Amino acid sequence: MDSIGVLMPVPMSTYLEQELEKRFNLLKLWTVPQKTQFLKDHSGSIRAVVGNAGNGADAELIETLPKLEIVASFSVGIDKVDLNKCREKGIRVTNTPDVLTDDVADLAIGLALAVLRRLCESDRYLRSGQWKKGDYKLTTKFTGKTVGILGLGRIGKAVAKRAEAFSCPISYHSRTEKPELKYKYYPCVVELASNCDILVVVCALTDETRHIINREVIDALGPKGVLINIGRGPHVDEPEMVSALLEGRLGGAGLDVYENEPEVPEQLFELENVVLLPHVGSDTVQTDTAMADLVIGNLEAHFSNKPLLTPVV
Ligand SMILES: O=CC(=O)O
Question: What is the pTM of this model?
Answer without folding.
Answer: 0.97
